[in-house]
Write a structure and sequence with these properties.
The complex is a heterodimer.
Chain A: E1 4-7, E2 10-14, E3 19-25, E4 32-38, E5 45-51, E6 56-59, E7 62-67, E8 72-77, E9 86-94, E10 96-99, E11 103-108
Parallel strand pairs in A: 2-11
Antiparallel strand pairs in A: 1-3, 3-8, 4-5, 4-9, 6-7, 7-8, 9-10, 9-11
Chain B: E1 5-7, E2 10-13, E3 19-24, E4 31-37, E5 44-50, E6 53-57, E7 64-68, E8 74-78, E9 87-94, E10 98-100, E11 104-108
Parallel strand pairs in B: 2-11
Antiparallel strand pairs in B: 1-3, 3-8, 4-5, 4-9, 5-6, 7-8, 9-10, 9-11
The chains are: A mainly beta, B mainly beta.
Amino acid sequence: GENVEQHPSTLSVQEGDSAVIKCTYSDSASNYFPWYKQELGKRPQLIIDIRSNVGEKKDQRIAVTLNKTAKHFSLHITETQPEDSAVYFCAARDGKLTFGQGTILTVHP
Amino acid sequence: DSGVTQTPKHLITATGQRVTLRCSPRSGDLSVYWYQQSLDQGLQFLIQYYNGEERAKGNILERFSAQQFPDLHSELNLSSLELGDSALYFCASSGEGYTFGSGTRLTVV
């Protein structure tokens, strides 16, 4: 089955800096790659996604890139703000979603 | 409100007991996915139902079972509960993307 590896497990940045989280997947049949943000005690919320026929997608301060050949995809957050602090999960779908282990992002004011 | 409804929000029960968690998917979504999130753990896929039939199974214990009813709501049954079953249990439904419910926090004492 699919296996998703996510790095780093924790990331600490200063407000205004950029943050990058990277994921790799194993199943070349996976065709949909969402990113979720989860605040403490709350549900994961979809923040951006990308399909396998697209290399990059942007939505304001967040962007996702996908390299199908290398089987990796990344989340980029620019001009980080304290409210970006949360746990971020990547996922890959081959039928069902398989999640990475999560990255705890802390943005210091 | 995500449109995915989970009840109850909190559940405290003793070891050895049995509980039922309930999920209603978004209107029009046929799939329901169940995930377990333990402390400091990622989202572990348990089981998927599609239009009343089991579609995929993950790391679901034999003490756990689920079903999806004709009205598409789903129930996750956890029996012979152990302390280690304490976790957040999320369901998600999918149409274009996955949307999570608010989760049920289960505490086994």
